[in-house]
Amino acid sequence: MQAQINAILNQTATKTSKIRQLLTLGVARTEIARLLTNGNYGFVQNVYKKMQADGNLNALSQQIAEQINFTPKQFNKDFGVEFEAYNVRMEILKSKLNAAGIACEIEGYNHSDRRHWKIVTDSSINGSQTFELVSPILKGEAGIAEMMKVCSVLNKCGAKVNKSCGTHVHINARNFTLDQWKRIYINYARLERTIDNFMPQSRRSDNNHYCQSLRNLSNFETRINNAADLREINTQLNNTRYYKVNPQSYSRHNTCEFRQHAGTTDFVKISTWVRFLNNLVDFSENNLIADSTIDGLKYFNSIEITNYYKYRTLELAA
Question: CATH no. for residue 156?
Fold first, then answer.
């Protein structure tokens, strides 16, 4: 894919023409802005909207979706995110977030939901000036936009991540049926090897105690299918939250928590992961994964997301 991107960038065509080609290829809009417009996301978004209105993007997405009768919905769910990082004093981070219009407080370690972002300690993180930045409930595209501001502040403050850091995502699960819960666990386990390939080594298989493998559990699908309720699923997962899909998050927060993503302050990485998880949750409402390869992602994701993870897989290949 990188060779195709480079070929487009080296053309003598207009910026608009290059943007259209990169969008068709599936390159993320924020990445296109970085490559072509000196970070002017609005320019890229206008081209995207025109292509969407003309049916060029919809036709591509529909061609894929018709194969399984599933089309990704507009993202409007409640969600939350937890950034683990280091190298920034909590007082400085709070001040910079507040200055950017992001309400934030420093608190002791807790699992309580807040209406503001909170900075708490986390003993699992290695490094100096460690912290965990936890969002309030965010909603859909407005939440994505707020998360973009937060990532910008983290990067300007010099926040760093290492192998001990993770980025956890919560999706509102209040309306999930038991069958949907089961399909989420089973689908994630079926996709786990593919997901592992676009995560760093420290987040793959059972390499990390805090996000253990689902697929490595013996008779996993049978155990999940036979569970009578969420409490029994938790029992089947050894009564611990440290799996790639946390079996205890609903009882604490009414959410489904995904724990596998590595620590990051990169907005493109985390926003794409949030959208991917949203699509997986929606797909799991009625469907089970049949194609667990990287190409199988196209059955419940846009071309943009699918190609992003194909590119990440190539980047992280040993």
Answer: 3.30.70
- Within a domain: residue 227? yes
Q: Which domain holds residue 193?
A: 171-316
Looking at the structure, do residues 202 and 295 belong to the same domain, yes or no? yes
Task: Single out the residue in 143, 165, 187 at which a domain terminates.
Answer: 165
Alpha helices in the chain (DSSP H): 2-9, 15-25, 29-36, 41-53, 56-65, 90-99, 140-156, 178-197, 220-225, 230-236, 249-253, 267-283, 303-316
Q: Please list the pLDDT of the chain residue by residue as tens digits (318 residues).
A: 567 788 889 999 899 999 888 887 767 677 788 889 888 878 888 888 888 777 776 554 444 334 456 788 889 999 999 999 999 999 999 999 999 999 999 999 998 999 999 999 999 999 999 999 999 999 999 999 999 999 999 999 999 999 999 999 999 999 999 999 999 999 999 999 999 999 999 999 999 999 999 999 999 999 999 999 999 999 999 999 999 999 999 999 999 999 999 999 999 999 999 999 999 999 999 888 888 999 999 989 999 999 999 999 999 996
Q: What DSSP state is assigned to residue 263?
A: P
Confidence (pTM): 0.80
Cα–Cα dist 44/21, whole Å: 12
The answer for residues whose C-beta is within 8 angstroms of residue 67's C-beta and 6 or more apart is 299
The tally of domains found in the chain comes to 3
Phi, psi (rounded to 5 degrees) for 257: -100, 130
161 and 181 housed in the same domain = no
Query: What residue type is assigned to position 209 of the chain?
Result: H
165 three-class SS = coil
